[in-house]
Write a structure and sequence with these properties.
Elements: H1 2-37, H2 45-56, H3 66-69, H4 74-78, H5 88-100, E1 106-110, E2 115-118, E3 121-123, E4 128-136, E5 146-156, E6 159-165, H6 167-189
Antiparallel strand pairs: 1-2, 2-4, 3-4, 4-5, 5-6
């Protein structure tokens, strides 16, 4: 009887050891598979860090954005000055425009078409708000190279009342973008 009890305990112990070993093996395999299933979407560690920073600032950059892709070329490369492409100045103007609206939440940023669309940004303790659409049209840095539309609304009770485009402020923002882009382009040529 004692011998049967000992044999039963040994069989149970063997089953327990085998089960534990299999469980550890399967868990390890599952972790390795999870790492292999994770796609490698970044070309470099710097690109990964820049993408994470953009996500932290709620920048909705499209995948393959030239702002992130050009990060490995240094600051001049990210501004389009290092590669000798046709869009060198356009990249400077676009980067300046993006920097100017960096305090606002962004809905869409498309560096290929030169379009930046912000979300509504509250002013006056939430009694008014603004939204901007910016388009960098060409690389010439003339008044026709950038279009800015600044939309305004004010709160009336619980409804937002549209005030249309504020042309005066739109022009001031456009001039600020062009002035900064021109200064940066001149400084980069030195």
């Amino acid at each position: 009887m004692i011998e049967q009890n000992t044999q039963f305990q040994l069989k149970t112990m063997k089953k327990l050891i085998i089960s534990a070993t299999l469980l550890i093996f399967l868990t390890s395999c599952a972790q390795i598979q999870a790492l292999q299933d994770e796609p490698e979407t970044y070309k470099s560690q710097e690109e990964k860090v820049l993408t994470e920073k953009a996500d932290d600032r709620d920048l909705n950059l499209p995948s393959g954005s030239s702002i992130i892709e050009n990060s490995g070329q240094g600051i001049l490369g990210s501004l389009g000055l290092g590669s000798g492409t046709n869009f060198e100045v356009n990249s400077i103007t676009f980067s300046v425009a993006l920097d100017k609206v960096g305090f606002m939440p962004l809905i869409s940023v498309d560096s290929t078409s030169g379009i930046i669309v912000t979300d509504w940004y509250s002013l006056d303790d939430g009694q008014s708000r603004i939204k901007m659409n910016i388009r960098v049209v060409d690389q010439e840095m003339t008044d026709e190279s950038v279009t800015v539309s600044l939309f305004t609304q004010y709160l009336d009770g619980d409804r937002w009342i549209d005030q249309g485009i504020n042309s005066e402020q739109s022009l001031k923002i456009k001039q600020s973008i062009l002035s900064s882009a021109r200064s940066l382009a001149i400084a980069s040529e030195l």
